[in-house]
Amino acid sequence: MNEQINLYLTEIILTILAILTVLIKNWFEQLRRKVLVYLEMKTTKEQRKVLGILAEEAFALAESAAKDLDGVRKLVLATEWLVSKAKKCGIDISAEDARATIERAWLLDKRTSGSMLH
After folding, report:
1. Are residues 93 and 45 in contact, defined by beta-carbon separation less than 8 angstroms?
2. Range 86-90, long-range pairs (CB < 8 A, 24+ positions)
3. What is the 8-class DSSP label of residue 66?
């Protein structure tokens, strides 16, 4: 009789441990997902800051170093420069996204100073 009770207790304890293991594993998985989301959001936020700064620099480069070029050529020059600099910073950006970022910097500059890409 004592052996049967020990067998039942062992089964109950093993079942409880198995359930706890599954619960802990699920909890760690949820925690891992939250950490990954947080890191992705933080990285994206930091990358946006860097891209904003680089876009301003690209715009300034196009305005000052390529005064003889028309607006479209300045934008191409600034876009190429931004994509290159972003890649060196470990940020993969398409030319289209780089152009949009530069145009945003241009609009912000236009609002504050009234200058335009010509």
Report:
1. no
2. 86/50, 86/51, 86/54, 89/50, 89/54
3. T
User: Looking at the 3D structure of the chain, how many domains does it have?
Assistant: 1
Looking at residue 118, what is its pLDDT?
46
Return the SS3 of 4: helix
Structure confidence at residue 109 (pLDDT): 78
Q: Which residues, including other chains, have CB under 8 Å from residue 25's CB and lie 6 or more apart?
A: none
Mean pLDDT per 10-residue interval, the chain, length 118 residues: 89 96 93 81 82 91 81 88 93 89 84 58
* Tokens of residue 72, six digits: 């479209």
CB atoms within 10 A of CB 118: 9
Structure tokens at 58: 């690209």
Q: With CA atoms as reference, report the closest residue to 97 among 89, 105, 46.
A: 105
Tell me which DSSP letter residue 69 carries.
S
pLDDT at 15: 96
Instruction: Give the range of the structural domain holding residue 72, as residue numbers without chain letter.
Output: 2-113
Instruction: With respect to residue 118, please indicate whether it lies within any of the assigned structural domains.
Output: no
